Structure formats: C-alpha cells, structure tokens
Amino acid sequence: MTANRHVYYMAHPLRPTQEEIDATEPYRVEPGRNEYELDSEIWIPYEERVKEATLANAERAMRWLAWLRRSFPLVTFIAPWIASVLAGDDDRDPVMRAAGIADAVTLIPRLDGVVMVGGRVSEGMRCEGDVARQVVSLTHLGAEPPREVPADTADVMRQLARGERAL
Fold first, then answer.
1. Positive or negative CA dihedral for 74, 120, 114, 97?
2. Which of 27, 97, 21 is nearest to 53 (CA)?
3. Which residues pair with 136 in a beta bridge?
4. What does the pLDDT look like over 26-75, one tens digit per residue?
5. Which of 19, 62, 94, 113 could form a disulfide linkage to 134, CB 3.0–4.6 angstroms apart?
6. Is residue 76 part of a domain?
7. How far is the CA of 18 from the CAs of 31, 87, 115, in angstroms?
8. Residue 152 lies in a domain
9. How far is 38 from 25, CA to CA, in rounded Å?
10. What's the structural domain count of the chain?
11. Which residues make Cβ contacts (< 8 Å) with residue 30, sequence separation at least 6?
C-alpha cells in the first residue's frame, strides 16, 4: 500500500498569555480535618499556575488535533511537540524550549506546510511558520475548535488534500 497523503504540522500556542494564567484558580480549598475545623484557602504559587495554564493549552491543542483529523481525514496532521510536553518537557525552561523550536524548524521544511490554530499566533508559531513551505492560518476560528467545519475552511482543506496551494 502506498500512501500519497499531504502532511501538515499543527501549530498551536503553548506558552500561556497573562490572561490565561490569570484565569487559573489562585487558591484551592483544603477541607478541614473534622467537623470542627474550618476549611482553609491555600494560595497556589504563580509558577504552578503557569504550569497549569500551559497544560491547559496542550489539552486544547489535542482537541484541535482531534478536530483536524476528524474533519479532514484526507490530510495527515502531526503535532509531535504535544508528546514532548506531556512526556515532561518544560516550555518554561529556555534550553528545552530552544530544543523544541529546533526540532520543529528541522522537521517542518520536510512537510507540506503548517496549519496554525488556537486563536492566536505565538512567538514559537511564528518561528515554525517562517520555515514552512505553506502556512494555513485557522486562528480566526477561535481558541477552541468549532463544532462544525465552516464552508471556507472546508474549501481550503480540500485544496490541501489535493496538493494545491491554499493561499
């Protein structure tokens, strides 16, 4: 069986914005140990909130990847960076972040292009787009994947499946 599919790298913001960090809970409630002890509010350190927001972005990216694969089964979408993050790579560590960007910019030129999703274009996504043969931005669809495929998006993705330039 020979596969003649077009392969696109899915780029999604990972590093959270301040707004995304602020949306995390600043404290958690620890219940009292018995009926006489009051519950306690425990403040969550800022770095833990950043990590929580980063993982929320990775989870959102997985929803996007699933949506792309389900919505456009004739195109192959990959996002190897998700596995790295879930395996423990820390985007806040400059060395690990640089290694992740280096991996991406090494891989992307070998693919048909990059599909950008997630409602915004991050600094890392800009680096990824700079080395791509073709960039398709679906960021206008919002932070979360839509329930249904908009007609204009379906047309673009059909062009990608046929190997045509979408832009």
1. negative
2. 21
3. 115
4. 888 877 777 787 778 888 999 999 999 999 999 999 999 999 999 999 89
5. 113
6. yes
7. 29, 24, 24
8. yes
9. 20
10. 1
11. 39, 40, 41, 42
